[in-house]
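Example S7 (structure tokens).
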């Protein structure tokens, strides 16, 4: 219709290309990608002030309208006076080792990068079926109605490829959010301003309210509040000490 508003940031989709992708995808047997190294996030739940600068930077980077949120800062409060507590949990896509979203995609639009384990979506192949949205236990995929596609955090792959860190990390004024090789983050062996050297024993892979990490092995660790701690992260022996130096983004 002549008066129908044009979609924001339309994704150029070719139906013939999508049909060919579906046909090709049906012939393939899903084989999990084992990345050369896996990048992940670390977030300090206690020192985060909940300013949401990371959310705003993410929306700005991805041109998101109000509604879809690739990154979310969640406020947790509880207790009874005088023993009350409050902390923040900051999450986006966790770029899981075994992403539940990936095998559900009928067109093969979702893929995991071999070099760093980042899970991304080829928007030109997305048909907006929202199966990935239903499969993800962490609510990462976000439906964008104006474009009839699903999208999510891709860890700012263009920034990663340029040797920089994602917009959310760069926007964090408290430096409580960071990325790095997840095996080193879990072992407390990665140098980051998101964690003090004395806080290694506070590293956890799950906080209260978060889906069971055993479902998909998400690439994220937290410095948890004592009231939010669920399980300690088993330290990996001398994380990557005997391995070649990983390619890491430029430090802030």
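Recovered sequence:
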């Amino acid at each position: 219709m002549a008066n129908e508003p044009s979609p924001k940031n339309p994704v150029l989709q070719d139906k013939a290309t999508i049909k060919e992708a579906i046909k090709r995808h049906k012939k393939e047997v899903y084989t999990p990608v084992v990345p050369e190294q896996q990048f992940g996030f670390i977030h300090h739940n206690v020192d985060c002030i909940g300013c949401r600068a990371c959310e705003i930077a993410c929306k700005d980077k991805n041109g998101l309208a109000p509604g879809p949120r690739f990154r979310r800062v969640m406020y947790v409060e509880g207790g009874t006076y005088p023993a009350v507590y409050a902390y923040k949990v900051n999450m986006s896509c966790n770029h899981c080792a075994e992403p539940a979203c990936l095998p559900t995609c009928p067109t093969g639009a979702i893929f995991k990068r071999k070099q760093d384990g980042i899970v991304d979506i080829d928007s030109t192949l997305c048909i907006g079926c929202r199966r990935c949205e239903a499969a993800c236990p962490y609510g990462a995929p976000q439906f964008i109605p104006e474009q009839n596609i699903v999208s999510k955090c891709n860890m700012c792959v263009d920034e990663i490829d340029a040797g920089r860190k994602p917009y959310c990390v760069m926007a964090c004024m408290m430096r409580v959010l960071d990325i790095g090789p997840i095996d080193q983050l879990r072992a407390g062996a990665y140098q980051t301003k998101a964690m003090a050297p004395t806080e290694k024993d506070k590293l956890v892979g799950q906080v209260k309210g978060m889906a069971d990490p055993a479902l998909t092995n998400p690439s994220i660790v937290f410095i948890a509040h004592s009231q939010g701690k669920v399980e300690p992260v088993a330290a990996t022996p001398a994380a990557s000490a005997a391995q070649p130096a990983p390619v890491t983004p430029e430090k802030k």
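Notes on this example. The radius of gyration is 19 Å.
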